[in-house]
Amino acid sequence: MPVADQNANRKSDIQPPSAKVVIDEDVQFGSGKRGPNGRSDDEALEAGALPGQRGLIFKDSESMERFLANLGDHVKLLGRIDALNAVHVGFSDPLDLLALLDGNEELSLIFPAWLPSPKPGGVQAGAVGVGGDLLKVLGISSDNSLWGKGVWVAVLDTGVSTHPSISSKISMLNLVPLSTDLTNWNGHGTAVAGLIAGSGNLTPGVAPGLEGLLSVRIGDDNGVSNSSLIAQGIVAAVDAGVKVVNISFGSSGDSGLVRNAIQYARDAGVVIVASAGNEGVQRLTYPAANDGVIAVGAVDAMGTAMDFSNSGKSLAVMTPGYDINAAWTNNEAVSFSGTSASAPLLAGAIAAAMNPGDGTTRTAQQAADLVLSKLNEAGAPGWDPGYGNGVLDMGRVMNAGVPGIYDAALASNYLAAPTADIPYPHLQVVIQNRGTAMLLNAGVKVTTPFGSMPMNITNLAPDQTHTFNIPLPLVDWNAPGTLKFDSSVNLSGSQWDVKTTNNRRVETYSPSSN
């Protein structure tokens, strides 16, 4: 079961979507063709949604059943979600659908969804792949074989096949039928599942002690799905009793069906994790962009944001997402990249925090809150659209209740433009206390091309950060050359730093290459 080489077998969630989804070719419902009166579905076409299709959400089941009783020959039922009082219909002429409505329904466009698509040149020079070092990169240095004990996680994807590295139970629900030729089975879902619950040295996962995986196949072997299938998958996972849901599919549109399904999940105490997308743009794909979903972007093994990873106001957290060893169909192992690889690592982290196998149990929301409270600061101080709230660190999560840990980290050297508060260029040096004990009199030294300066932090509580704003001269920042910023933090007295490798950061800024 060798890891795929650099060329022939490298697998990634960076795959282009299919151009069109046809629900039922025989009757041409939802095909986007003009109706008998020559009317096209301009609303859907302009929004990038599937023409000739809508989701309808009713105020109650009686209203839904009255609508269904009046369908007739020109509007066809393509799916229903009883828990949401919702249906998915297809039509040839928009007026045929409008004739059946009484104005009390919520109409929702149906958007295509796919495995996150690529940004050309989305892997920057110098990016460091994770390979087989996933546990080390995540800060896991102890036995994690029991993490996730008794927990089920739903994987809404292309389906999960059995694999030697996945010992958890696998329960399958295929909303999209499997191909009769399983050699064509897209292994994306299996890779995602392995990152959640894999074991062994070759393809490890975060929570190998997981009780089971609910595989909800919402995408075909070309990696194509739609917002109706995503909504159906969420509801099916909730109804099955699963408390953590991973979605590594993305859509360009905000669907009312999906929003209602997310709220249904939240009301049931279910946490949904989704990939931010791989287009390298400053907006997230849906459902990651929806309220109530934890959106996950990708960093490399060094914690640097990948150029392909989408950024934006809904981004919550970053996890590794570049060249990670992962399971695949046919008992293979591959190198897996993209935010599709990042999201399941967070889902696995939440499952692990729900039950680490030491007698501790938490709800899914309590576990998610714990994981998100122990992130490593990165990028600009505080939340920022490129790194969200920071980078996953499972060592900090699992040591949260262990007293007396000293860990001072030089979290970031961030070159900031002038602002209203600081009207000159400045370097923001961010120190973070990643331990569980108060830091006292930590020494900080910052060296820039314009001089060196020693500073001090009197005290810094666990999980807190301190930012030094270092003024920089008004120089021509677009002039050729490289600027080097070297910052370090050191503890004093009897404080023994458990991780000195994060005490220093050296950043270079090359204006001519930006």
Q: What keyword list fits this structure?
A:
about 525 residues, alpha/beta, Alpha-Beta Plaits, Rossmann fold, Immunoglobulin-like, seven-stranded parallel β-sheet, four-stranded antiparallel β-sheet, about 20% helix, globular
State Rg.
25 Å
Number of strands: 23
Reported by name, the CATH topology of the largest domain is Rossmann fold
- What is the top-level CATH class of the largest domain? Alpha Beta
Q: Work out the strand percent.
A: 25-35%
What's the name of the CATH homologous superfamily of the largest domain?
Peptidase S8/S53 domain
Distance between the termini: 41 Å
Structural class: alpha/beta
- Low-confidence segments, ≥5 residues, pLDDT <50? 1-29
Q: What topology, given as strand order, has the largest sheet?
A: 7-8-6-10-12-13-14
Number of helices: 10
Number of domains: 3
> What profile does the largest beta sheet have?
7 strands, parallel
Overall average pLDDT: 90
Helical fraction equals 10-25%
Shape: globular
Under the CATH scheme, the architecture of the largest domain is 3-Layer(aba) Sandwich
Summed up:
The protein has 514 residues and is of the alpha/beta class. Helix content is 18%, strand content 26%. It has helices at residues 42-47, 61-69, 94-98, 134-137, 188-197, 227-239, 256-267, 339-354, 364-373, 394-398; strands spanning 53-57, 75-81, 86-91, 106-109, 112-114, 152-157, 169-174, 212-217, 224-226, 244-247, 250-251, 271-275, 293-299, 315-320, 324-327, 333-336, 408-416, 426-433, 439-448, 451-460, 465-471, 483-490, 504-509.
